[in-house]
């Protein structure tokens, strides 16, 4: 057993305070004996370190769609899923992550992570869909960290499904066995259709690993009925009873009769219907995507990558709704929480909503977030997205790790204080030392959230004299470290800390990058893709930042190239500059280098103020076209919203009138120059 100094200090505090010790400490204090087998590779961190070192980031509400539910509203979260799951784990411990029956934790988890391959897939329009960047041990550890947090989030009777393909499934199976030992296991083969060419066994399936708690419920998915092999071999005895004959399952040489119904007066067809009704056949662990092939085995089809036009949302690697319907029905009940940490196109969220489950989706890509938002606001009741319109139950969009400081400043004091403490991983525990009020602790050191909103502190500055006054009051009784949290402009000095005697007073500025001295790891970016190949990249972020609107200058117009039948509108990007203090302070990006993509809503609703994604243009394609975003002019209605996204997740939004493209004027409008900063 090896404890870090911080772990020792925290454990002593818990014991002295008489607080409960969370289950995660068991693995730190009593590490499991070396397993019979395990996957060993470079960079494999101890489970306890992963949980304790992961930075929990506050969830900043951006918008709620629909009225708030009484006890719960569904969650769509933009941010790194590892950090978000640490926050959700704290919610679970606090009793704020509960199923409708009141039990804490997530009842069902489904994830479809990137498959870690350099090979390219082809999308429905014969374009490259994605390229996973992480290989080997790096990818395995990337996914293992998230599986550890997912295990902690599971309810005691929960189930997890992990969707993989052949490239890394064998490695991840060993990792899953390590993490979910004691769980019941099933391996599902999804026959998703031929997805390759060549002479060496083209790919035709993907693998879904299922681990169910021994306490977990399981609702066996039904098949259509008996297979043609059985119904075709039915025989009728002298008394009119229909039966099948097969070798005994124990391996003996006898052939046994199995009667399929208890009414000898029925015809063969009636007997089959009666048997199907009273003796439902459970689906096998091989799930067939195509309808005609599934019916051959008397099973329901679960869809393929060739999803229907009703379902199509234009996102790479979208999964069919019938596939998630079978998973969600098998391993959850109405009101249970369903979580997807790699939701992509949002199929899990859409099906969970239709089946009346609670849901949480976490994605690090703005394209995914806007795709899911649009999908949830345009649902149809039936699986496959058919039938009448379905208004979803209230769901909220959150930022996690990239915050809007302008909205934070408008928070009431208590909300600001709570957010500040969360942001810097502080324990909320007010106390006094030498008459000075402190708001909590950070790793055993006292924390003060400066009350800049109070009238007596309006326009007040925190100077070195302010720090000295605090020190004179608290002296050495405060320990060797003190943290002071305040808006960045409140501090009247530039250094990250000031020393008095043997006490170091840290300045934690909002907005600001957390100083690296406080963390084991450097902060890294939550990067957005600049081409379609990178949409499903495995991305890992550490830390947080604040939204900074990029500098944008552009020109609009129309054109019709020689040989083209239709007239196109265009947005010519002349300037696009952005930066993020915590991300890459050592390298200043040049003009246009930070552009990720441009997303368009051709019929923006100014009253609802909901961005309804219609088209996405990646920076790589825009650059090839001379930094022009081109689109069919006739697609524009009265107003078009264009969202210019940088690689850090910041947005520059512009609302463009159709008249700028000659719509509704009877002639082409003059070209316009625009600037947004």
What's the rounded overall pLDDT mean?
83
Alpha-beta classification: alpha/beta
Q: Name the overall outline.
A: globular
Beta-strand residue fraction: 25-35%
What is the β-strand count? 31
Main beta-sheet strand count, sense and barrel state: 10 strands, mixed
Q: What spatial order of strands do you see in the largest sheet? A: 1-15-2-12-11-3-4-6-5-10
From the alpha carbons, calculate the radius of gyration and give it in angstroms: 29 Å
- Poorly predicted segments: 117-134, 513-521, 581-586, 666-670
Number of helices: 16
Task: Give the proportion of residues in helices.
Answer: 10-25%
C-alpha termini separation: 54 Å
Question: Could you characterize the architecture of this molecule?
Answer:
The protein has 16 helices and 31 strands. The strands form 7 sheets. Strands 1-15-2-12-11-3-4-6-5-10 form a 10-stranded mixed beta sheet, with helices on both faces. It has a 6-stranded mixed beta sheet with strand order 17-18-19-20-22-21. Strands 28-25-24-31 form a 4-stranded antiparallel beta sheet. The protein is globular.
């Amino acid at each position: 057993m090896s404890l870090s100094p911080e772990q020792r200090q925290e454990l002593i505090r818990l014991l002295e305070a008489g607080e409960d010790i969370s289950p995660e400490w068991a693995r730190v204090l009593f590490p499991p004996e070396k397993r019979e087998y395990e996957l060993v590779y470079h960079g494999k961190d101890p489970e306890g370190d992963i949980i304790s070192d992961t930075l929990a980031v506050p969830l900043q509400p951006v918008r709620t769609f629909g009225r708030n539910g009484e006890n719960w509203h569904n969650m769509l979260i933009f941010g790194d899923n590892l950090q978000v799951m640490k926050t959700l784990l704290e919610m679970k411990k606090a009793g704020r992550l509960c199923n409708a029956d009141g039990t804490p934790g997530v009842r069902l988890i489904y994830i479809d992570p990137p498959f870690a391959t350099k090979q390219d897939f082809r999308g429905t329009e014969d374009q490259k869909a994605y390229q996973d960047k992480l290989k080997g041990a790096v990818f395995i550890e990337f996914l293992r960290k998230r599986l550890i947090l997912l295990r902690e989030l599971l309810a005691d009777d929960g189930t997890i499904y992990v969707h993989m393909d052949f490239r890394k499934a064998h490695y991840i199976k060993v990792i899953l066995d390590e993490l979910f030992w004691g769980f019941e296991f099933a391996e599902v083969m999804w026959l998703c259709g031929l997805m390759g060419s060549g002479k060496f066994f083209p790919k035709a399936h993907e693998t879904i690993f299922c681990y169910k708690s021994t306490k977990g419920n399981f609702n066996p998915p039904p098949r259509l009925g008996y297979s043609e092999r059985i119904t075709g071999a039915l025989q009728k005895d002298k008394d009119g009873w229909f039966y099948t004959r097969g070798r005994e399952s124990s391996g003996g040489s006898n052939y046994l009769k199995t009667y399929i119904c208890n009414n000898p007066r029925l015809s063969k067809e009636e007997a089959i219907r009666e048997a199907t009704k009273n003796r439902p056949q459970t689906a096998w662990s091989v799930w067939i995507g195509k309808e005609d092939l599934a019916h051959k085995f008397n099973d329901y089809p679960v869809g393929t990558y060739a999803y229907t036009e009703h379902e199509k949302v234009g996102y790479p690697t979208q999964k069919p709704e019938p596939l998630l319907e079978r998973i969600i029905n098998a391993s959850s009940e109405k009101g249970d929480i369903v979580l997807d940490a790699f939701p992509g196109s949002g199929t899990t969220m859409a099906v969970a909503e239709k089946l009346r489950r609670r849901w949480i989706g976490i994605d690090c890509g703005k394209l995914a977030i806007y795709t899911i938002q649009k999908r949830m606001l345009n649902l149809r009741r039936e699986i496959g997205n058919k039938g009448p319109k379905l208004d979803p139950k209230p769901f909220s969009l959150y930022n996690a790790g990239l915050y809007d400081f302008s909205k934070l400043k408008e928070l009431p004091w208590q909300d600001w204080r709570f957010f500040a403490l969360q942001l810097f991983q502080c324990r909320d525990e007010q106390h006094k030392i030498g008459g000075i009020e402190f708001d909590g602790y950070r790793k055993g050191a006292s924390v003060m959230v400066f009350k800049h909103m109070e009238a007596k502190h309006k326009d007040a500055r925190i100077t070195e004299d302010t720090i000295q006054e605090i020190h004179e009051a608290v002296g050495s009784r405060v320990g060797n470290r003190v943290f002071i949290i305040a808006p960045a402009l409140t501090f009247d000095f530039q250094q990250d800390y000031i020393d008095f005697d043997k006490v170091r007073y840290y300045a934690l500025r909002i907005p600001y990058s957390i100083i690296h001295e406080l963390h084991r790891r450097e902060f890294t970016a939550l990067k957005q893709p600049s081409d379609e190949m990178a949409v499903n990249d495995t991305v890992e972020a550490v830390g947080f930042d604040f939204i900074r609107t990029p500098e944008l200058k552009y020109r609009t117009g129309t054109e019709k190239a020689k040989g083209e039948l239709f007239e196109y509108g265009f947005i010519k990007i002349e300037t696009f500059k952005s930066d993020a203090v915590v991300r890459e302070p050592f390298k200043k990006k040049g003009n246009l280098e930070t552009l990720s993509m441009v997303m368009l809503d051709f019929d923006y609703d100014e009253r609802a103020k909901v961005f309804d994604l219609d088209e996405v243009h990646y920076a790589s394609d825009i650059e090839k076209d001379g930094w022009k975003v081109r689109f069919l002019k006739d697609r524009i209605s009265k107003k078009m919203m264009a969202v210019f996204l940088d690689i850090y997740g910041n947005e520059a939004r512009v609302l463009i009138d159709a008249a700028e493209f000659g719509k509704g004027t009877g002639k082409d409008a003059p070209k316009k120059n625009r600037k947004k900063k």
